Amino acid sequence: MDFIKETDLPGIGRKFSASPASGGKIIIIVHDDGVREIYRYDDSDADSEVEHIVSFDDSEARKIAGILGGLAYTPKALDNARVDLKGLAIDWYKLTAPAPFIGSSIGALGIRKNIGVSIIGIIRHDGGSLVNPGPEAVLQDGDTVVMAGTREQINAFHAGARGNPQPAS
Q1: Looking at the chain, which terminus has fewer C-beta neighbours within 10 angstroms, N or C?
Q2: Nearest-angstrom CA–CA distance, 76 and 62
Q3: CATH number, domain containing residue 154
Q4: What is the pLDDT of residues 15-38, one digit of tens each?
Q5: Distance between CA 70 and CA 91 in Å, rounded?
Q6: pLDDT by residue (tens digit) across 108-144?
Q7: How far is it, in rounded angstroms, from Cα 50 to Cα 17?
Q8: Residue 42's closest CA among 20, 16, 14?
Q9: Where among 47, 68, 89 does a domain terminate?
Q10: What would the 3-class secondary structure string for 29-45 be?
Q11: In Å, how far are 69, 83, 144, 149, 150 from 86, measured between CA atoms?
């Protein structure tokens, strides 16, 4: 069974229902105008009603998504993690010495051209972050690189970061 179920809501937007292993259900409705609403439902109680929790505008929703996705803070147990969404994978990878990418810029490494992933963020070891870094951004020891691509491209990035370069399929 899928963790997240998607349903089109014609004239409204799209509904996402998530049923975590811990029980219950959360429903997120993304309206075509950018508003996001979050609802809660206790599926263990037959008399339970859907409860509206909160609504976010587009900007607020994107900030919350960054927090949930680990861009603002990555728990220590999740230094390396991956989210797969219908062929698109979003992944973060912590660079540690002697990773060959350390000390080189994204452009010099040709990460997008040679591997195929797009680096969408860098979380610096000192707590700072770069969102959508350019080719001039230099990767540093202890950086957590946030990237998007296919599973194969992300696997190729991991291999290259470990010193075993291989082309993405």
Answers
A1: N
A2: 23
A3: 3.30.70.1450
A4: 888 887 777 788 888 888 888 888
A5: 10
A6: 999 999 999 999 999 998 888 899 999 999 999 999 9
A7: 12
A8: 20
A9: 68
A10: EEECCCCEEEEEECCCC
A11: 17, 10, 24, 11, 10
Give the whole-angstrom CA distance, residue 116 versus residue 35: 32
Residue 169 lies in a domain: no
Per-residue DSSP letter, 138: B
**Can you give the chain as a three-state secondary structure string?**
CCCEEEEEECCCEEEEEECCCCCCEEEEEEECCCCEEEEEECCCCCCCCCEEEEEECHHHHHHHHHHHCCCCCCCHHHCCEEEEECCEEEEEEECCCCCCCCCCEHHHHCHHHHHCCEEEEEECCCCCEEECCCCCCECCCCCEEEEEECHHHHHHHHHHHCCCCCCCC
Predicted TM-score of the model (pTM): 0.53
Q: Are 116 and 160 within 8 A, CB to CB?
A: no
Domain that holds residue 51: 4-68
Tokens of 54: 């909160």
